[in-house]
Amino acid sequence: MAKKPKKKKKGLGKIKGFSMRFLPYSEIRDLNSDERIKKILDICLKNNIIILQGRLRPEEESRLIGDTMAMIGHVKDFKGIELAVVSENNKKGFWDKLRERLINTLSKGDLGAVTIIGPATVVKEIKRDPKKIELMLNK
Amino acid sequence: MVMKKFKKFFRKIISNFFKNKKDVKLGFYGPPNAGKTSLANRICKDFTGEEIGSVSKVPHETRKVQFKEKVDIEYKGKKMTFKMVDTPGIATKIDYEDFMKYKVKKSDAKKRAKEATQGVVESIKWLEDMDMVVVVLDATKNPYNQVNITILGNLVARKIPVLIVANKVDLKKADIKKIEAAFPDYPVVGISAKYGKNFEDFYNSLFKTSKKAKK
How distant is the Cα of A79 from the closest Cα of chain B, in angstroms? Predict the structure, then answer.
């Protein structure tokens, strides 16, 4: 009896591993918000953990959460993302803030931060306090 | 000419009068199971006699934005009218299997997860419509959660006044100082929505913050 050809599974399937991808800010600097979020989610859907240089704008962060929610239930085995932004201490003086704003304006983004984004199927939790950050992975 | 100017002046006074009468849209935001509905319920019960929604130990009990119009809050002789907007908890991930740990049936858990994802999207959409927001955090949990930071970042970007409520202070593990240290730029008030603890401070802070609210 001829064997039935195996159907190719759609979606994420069982997690066998993961990879980390560094995304320099230059790769998203000239993209609009839609394109940035699409790029990030596309990478996440391939089971990659993204280390993004810089951070998204607040409205992009909330859009990323909203778009993630819209994908749950539509992409097989996708349960969402884990997200953390690591940035410098907020307790800064007026001149430090002004200087930071000037640098951010010139570089078109907040490069003093790092954003970690991973699919929830791979990253169980990102634990953090002001001094350290821990990435807890799913088995 | 003088008559025209007089009419214009009079019209402006009338429109300003009604403009100031507009109710302050007060949003309750935060992660799931922080006690947003418990807090909104207590306020509504105190001033209208009715609750706004149901509460549960199972996360994502509120999956649709809930409203209570014309809530007149009176405190120490001051009075303000609010439109209360209780929102579903914002999360970055939702797994139906997590609901099954609370003995929810698989089919119900899947339905709940689907509704919860829609609720998060709805919460985010409503954010920009708020005049003022109470961010409700569970004082027993680590405040350095990206959801909290994202909500606050969005409110600051939209210049919406914020009051942070550290809920569940009746529990041993509660740590308000950790929340204050995490968000030093915002007023923080510790309460227990369940037992009505420290509501004097809460209403005091609410009135103070409401002065900054756009009307």
Answer: 6
